[in-house]
């Protein structure tokens, strides 16, 4: 079944706690924590996202879905694992070689978290096929990582489809999560292509009723 991971990147200052409680009430399946270091991507949300995630951890049982858009993946895994997230996802493009990919996979598992690998739009998804037997989730970026409110890149639909076909052919149990520009128009397209976890930030946070939009995205 399809799940929704609400990105808190664009939450309005001063409305954080109200928003987090409302998203929990609206039954978001995860809180999507967009960790940016100002190096892998231009923006730096590192400290703010750690604070938000720590607060959510204290007030809610909704699982944390941590998306690391950072160069120093090892450091970020060590720091964010303290919040006992459900999933820690790092970028393939932040790894210097295959050994490092394996190292980060094992590190995350040692912290008893599920492992996600994310690929940017320009990265061929075939590059991570060899790691699929060892991970739980592939996060397909449907926009260039670094900011919310962008438009989904339509070429990514074919990429999702190819990945879903490969996963099914290999009989692997892996979630396909999509991130960026997901809304009521694009959700049906990405689900049809094979995505089963939808990250949405702008589309949810700008909605009048979070439960309505979350249910419709899942629908
Ligand atoms: C972008 C982030 C996305 C973003 C959500 O780098 O990874 O999670 O916050 O994007 P929108 O606002 O398009 O749902
Ligand atoms: Zn994200």
Architecture overview:
This protein is of the alpha/beta class. 36% of the residues lie in helices and 20% in strands. It has eight helices and eight strands. An eight-stranded parallel β-barrel has the order 1-2-3-4-5-6-7-8, surrounded by six helices. It starts with a strand and ends with a helix. The model has no long low-confidence stretch (mean pLDDT 98).
Largest sheet: 8 strands, parallel, barrel
E-strand count: 8
Detail the poorly predicted runs. none
* SSE-based structural type: alpha/beta
Main-sheet strand order equals 1-2-3-4-5-6-7-8
Bound compounds, please? D-xylitol-5-phosphate, zinc ion
Rg = 16 Å
The separation of the N and C termini measures 10 Å
> For the residues shown, what is the average pLDDT?
98
């Amino acid at each position: 079944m399809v799940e929704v991971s609400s990105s808190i990147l664009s939450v309005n200052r001063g409305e954080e706690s109200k928003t987090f409680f409302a998203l929990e009430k609206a039954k978001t399946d995860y809180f999507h924590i967009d960790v940016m270091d100002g190096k892998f991507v231009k923006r730096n949300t590192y400290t703010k996202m750690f604070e938000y995630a720590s607060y959510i951890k204290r007030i809610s049982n909704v699982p944390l879905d941590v998306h690391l858009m950072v160069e120093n993946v090892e450091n970020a895994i060590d720091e964010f694992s303290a919040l006992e997230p459900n999933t820690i996802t790092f970028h393939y493009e932040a790894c210097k070689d295959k050994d490092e990919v394996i190292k980060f996979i094992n590190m995350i598992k040692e912290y008893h978290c599920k492992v996600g690998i994310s690929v940017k739009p320009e990265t061929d998804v075939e590059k991570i096929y060899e790691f699929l037997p060892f991970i739980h989730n592939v996060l397909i970026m449907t926009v260039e990582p670094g900011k919310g409110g962008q438009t989904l890149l339509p070429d990514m639909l074919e990429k999702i489809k190819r990945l879903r076909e490969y996963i099914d052919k290999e009989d692997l149990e892996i979630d396909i999560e999509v991130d960026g520009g997901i809304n009521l128009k694009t959700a049906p397209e990405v689900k049809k292509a094979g995505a089963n976890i939808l990250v949405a930030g702008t589309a949810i946070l700008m909605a009048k009723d979070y439960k309505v939009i979350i249910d419709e995205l899942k629908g």
